[in-house]
């Protein structure tokens, strides 16, 4: 039972600790930290100063009380010594009466040497032996109850009355120590209130000052967040001649460097395949990509009749046409995991299964080719309606062993694939008719359950003793048609959005 109770208590304590941690802020602003530290230092300083002043004030009041009491007792003893010796009671009463008129003195008494009270006024202490033997003044604290029943602290000062160095009696002067205590309390309260007021003002001043000090850091934090969001054009437009100014200048230089780097990466990714660019930028210390034999698929897509068509167009129109269709081919290639190796005039060379492992690279290449032909057919209907010439592609595809790596010099190189399989794909492209996709027989045999193709003929190849059987691909089977149509619609939607954006820009 005890063990179970301990377990419940431990579980409850852990739950409370977790809730407390959740309630605490994850980040405490630096302005609040600075304000807390500065306020704590100011409070400690003000409290220490207040205690020091209060202690000095109390000590001063006590000293003044005792000095006043000693002076009054010694003065009364000096004046009463001769009347005591001559038994001049009238003079003694005059002395005590005059002394009692001082509001600070609550009582005064003159005693004979044997302790007999000769004259008194006001409050007298209950002293069994008021006579003192020493030449100095003795202070004796005592208490009495006032009319309302509250205790009052009093101090009686007893001094010997001497005549020609012979003690003839003693005098007693009684003062109120409670008045001293009240004065000390009022002084202490005034110091406390002043300390609290100064603490509040100091706290507000500390928070305002910390906000001013942390404001540049806040600007730097906001600029850093903007950089993290991708806004590389962010700059801190503040001129300072201190350490923060150097920090702002360094941040602006860093942001400018990041912007230049981003621009270089974007331009670089437009001149080479994005996958190649990512691999090169990820390892700048070793720019060269390792040459390696691979099993991959190559696709060549060529625009038929482009030379005759370009003779009827302006150079700017030719460039615009190529850029438009090469953009479509690039999107289709990326949708099936391929890489644009290069653009050769009006021909595009795509590779599949080179940079990334892809066991289905041959089928992806054929699916990409079908997508290109269907996309061209869709676009031709629009071009025909607009009175523009139609664009037709002939495509050749081949799979096999090839070498992937860098070709060129140390100053200029490109990542590509070479080999007999690549050459055969180029030859198949040149043998294709407009809107036709040509593959060799071995590739059809491997993908026969997934593609729709017809046997064409055998093609003699220079350097090969056996002609190559070729097939014409019409489509892919319905199992993969959903993905094909979705990719086709995605490219067309992208084109529509771009056209709307261009129309808005022109407007």
Topology (elements, then pairings):
Blueprint: H1 2-23, H2 30-86, H3 89-100, E1 105-112, E2 117-122, E3 138-145, E4 151-163, E5 166-176, H4 177-228, H5 243-271, H6 274-282, E6 292-303, H7 306-310, H8 315-335, E7 338-344, E8 347-352, H9 361-385, E9 393-408, E10 413-418, H10 420-431, E11 436-440, H11 441-447, E12 451-459, E13 468-476, H12 481-506
Parallel strand pairs: 9-11
Antiparallel strand pairs: 1-2, 1-5, 3-4, 4-5, 6-8, 6-9, 7-8, 9-10, 11-13, 12-13
Helix pairs in contact: 2-3, 2-4, 4-5, 5-6, 8-9, 9-12
Fold and architecture overview:
By secondary structure, the chain is of the alpha+beta class. It has helices spanning 2-23, 30-86, 89-100, 177-228, 243-271, 274-282, 306-310, 315-335, 361-385, 420-431, 441-447, 481-506, and strands at residues 105-112, 117-122, 138-145, 151-163, 166-176, 292-303, 338-344, 347-352, 393-408, 413-418, 436-440, 451-459, 468-476. Strand 9 and strand 10 (413-418) form a beta hairpin. Helix 5 (243-271) crosses helix 6 and helix 9 packs across helix 12 (481-506). The relative contact order is 0.07. Mean pLDDT is 81; it is low at 285-290.
